[in-house]
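Backbone-to-sequence.
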């Protein structure tokens, strides 16, 4: 049994083809967990699975768009079928908006960002919960954002979606706290992943991202800093921590 208690546990990580999700999948696998890598991108999802297997771990992939119920159902069926249950769900996948203010946000941008960043985690959590409730235990960790805490870290759609994640985290914590389920979130500041590069390329990006990284002080490391916080919140060591949105932001939220 590893010291973190993940040995043999069934762990689903969304967005595990890249960035914070990939780093988390690798860390869980290092701790002996059986990892389900969920991502839209087949190539990067399978690269993560290969990296886990090369390191001697256990992983398999489900590829697809998390905003589709069919994909959500496949993720839960695959994890429970292959690993005998579902102990940890990391709702991490997300996309940026164009850093747009409300007046510049078109319906399509709003709906896609809300769908992927808020509705999809809700759908996957709803599908996973019965399996956790059956066993009377489960840990859910969301990747929220600095944009869950303030209005100046992204555009309107992303900020609204990530504030929604903070609310979802707290609602889950309160409503399932006596049933063995914990729900927490990390709120990353600027972190070195592919998402930040994408944001910098958008029309509104450079003017927003510059001061944003300035306020963040420095760019965090996806593995050493964000994934480590996710593993902690998912672990038994965080057994009395429920409903928290933990800034991992070099003190940005303290300003
Ligand atoms: P990333 O782009 O490196 O990884 C995101 C992954 O999610 C990608 O592999 C992508 O293919 C996947 N994904 C996107 N939409 C999907 C969908 N519909 N279905 C399935 N998979 C999908 O970015 P990251 O920074 O590692 O992002 C992880 C989380 O961290 C996101 O929720 C993001 O909002 C959050 N976050 C990132 C930062 C940062 O500075 N990087 C800051 C705050 C919050």
């Amino acid at each position: 049994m590893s010291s973190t208690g993940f040995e043999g546990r069934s762990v689903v990580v969304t967005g595990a083809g890249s960035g914070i999700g990939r780093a988390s999948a690798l860390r869980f696998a290092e701790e002996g967990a059986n990892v389900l890598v969920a991502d839209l991108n087949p190539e990067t999802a399978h690269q993560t699975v290969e990296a886990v297997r090369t390191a001697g771990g256990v992983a398999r992939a489900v590829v697809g768009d998390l905003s589709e119920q069919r994909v959500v159902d496949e993720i839960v069926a695959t994890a429970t079928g292959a690993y005998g249950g579902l102990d940890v769900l990391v709702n991490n996948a997300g996309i940026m908006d164009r850093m747009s203010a409300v007046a510049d946000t078109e319906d399509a941008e709003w709906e896609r960002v809300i769908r992927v960043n808020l509705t999809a985690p809700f759908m996957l959590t709803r599908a996973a919960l019965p399996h956790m409730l059956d066993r009377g235990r489960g840990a859910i960790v969301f990747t929220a954002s600095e944009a869950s805490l303030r209005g100046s870290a992204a555009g309107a759609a992303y900020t609204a979606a990530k504030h929604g994640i903070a609310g979802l985290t707290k609602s889950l914590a309160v409503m399932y706290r006596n049933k063995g389920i914990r729900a927490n979130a990390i709120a990353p500041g600027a972190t070195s992943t592919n998402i930040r590069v994408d944001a910098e390329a958008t029309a509104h990006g450079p003017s927003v991202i510059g001061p944003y990284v300035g306020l963040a002080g420095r760019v965090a490391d996806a593995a050493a800093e964000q994934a480590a916080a996710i593993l902690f919140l998912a672990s038994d060591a965080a057994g009395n921590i429920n409903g928290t949105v933990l800034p991992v932001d070099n003190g940005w939220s303290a300003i």
